[in-house]
Design a protein that fits this description.
- The protein has 309 residues and is an alpha/beta fold.
- The chain has a single domain, classed as Homocysteine-binding-like domain (TIM Barrel, Alpha-Beta Barrel), CATH 3.20.20.330.
- The protein is built from 13 helices and twelve strands.
- Helix 6 packs across helix 7.
Length: 309
């Protein structure tokens, strides 16, 4: 599947399939807790490529890159800020090598910086822009077809990330992290999100959709933070303001601790049972986030293929 084919299919209204979680898959291959995933693009390139291969074999149309922590703000925590360009370019190139064999579309991951823009934080808007622009330029050089600015918690950072990606000349997807709103009476956050959703700064899904589109995002949506049932509700909240296609990367449920192990309890079967409903709510690209595996993506593929019949 060529790049143009992916975009043509998206424009034609077909629901397309993205891939799933990366961090947990790399951990299965030996990445230590607290290790630097992006460094693996150079030191363990075959293992990184294998994650892409596994997802395309499961039926994905689109694949992410191992570059979520790819800004210099994130990499300075590992003492590797000077390696940003090399890590991102290598991550995009590895994903592209696999995508060319499977006819996939490479959407490079650009995660949050972990910083806040002044006056809430200590980083200026220009500094944050340069960090995202540095990453986006390296991703483009490595062969990415697009980027997804993902798991971003607030609109000021998202606007900057989108602008940097667009200025680098990349097709830009943008997905924000939303949490269930608290019960005004008790302060508890119900699992069924009966009071709706908001970012950590109280920004509503509708407000975020309008802002992402105004900033130039070609695709908008949400990822992480919610299991698939809440993602159906969240897409329904976003849809009235959405002029761009909607991308959803759902968690395999909310993480739980079992001893010292983090588990996600939404099985491929549980999540796949909601794919038709998620598509009917308005999702145009569906994939997985934390806790999802190639088995989840394979189950999603079966459900999406049923929609074509």
């Amino acid at each position: 599947m060529a790049k143009g084919n992916f975009l043509e299919r998206l424009k034609a209204g077909e629901v397309l399939l993205s891939d799933g979680a990366w961090g947990t898959e790399l951990q299965k291959m030996g990445l230590e807790a607290g290790g630097n995933p992006e460094e693996w693009n150079l030191s363990h390139s075959e293992k990184v490529k294998q994650v892409s291969i596994n997802y395309y074999e499961a039926g994905a149309d689109m694949g992410l890159t191992n570059t979520f922590n790819g800004t210099r703000f994130r990499q300075k925590h590992y003492g590797m800020a000077d390696k940003v360009a090399a890590f991102n370019e290598a991550g995009a190139r590895l994903a592209k090598d696999v995508a060319l064999k499977y006819g996939g579309f490479v959407t490079a991951s650009m995660g949050p910086t972990g910083e806040f823009v002044e006056p809430l934080g200590l980083v200026s808007a220009d500094e944050m822009y340069e960090a995202f622009k540095e990453q986006a330029a390296a991703l483009k050089k490595g062969g990415a077809d697009a980027v997804v600015c993902e798991t971003i918690f607030n609109l000021p950072e998202m606007r900057i990330a989108i602008r940097a990606a667009k200025d680098a000349g990349l097709f830009t997807m943008a997905t924000m992290f939303f949490d269930a709103k608290a019960d005004p009476a008790t302060g508890d956050k119900p699992k069924d999100a009966r009071f709706g959703f908001a970012t950590m700064f109280g920004e509503s899904p509708l407000e975020c959709v309008e802002a992402m589109q105004a900033a130039g995002a070609d695709v908008i949506g949400t990822n992480c933070g919610n299991g698939i049932e809440n993602m159906v509700r969240l897409v329904r909240e976003m849809k009235p303001a959405a002029k761009a296609p909607i991308l959803v990367h759902s968690n395999a449920g909310i993480p739980k601790l079992a001893g010292k192990k983090v588990i996600y309890d939404e099985t491929p079967e549980v999540m796949a049972a909601k794919i038709k409903e998620l598509a009917e709510a308005g999702a145009n690209i569906i994939g997985g986030c934390c806790g999802t595996t190639p088995e989840h993506i394979r189950a999603f593929r079966l459900e999406l293929d049923k929609l074509k019949r």
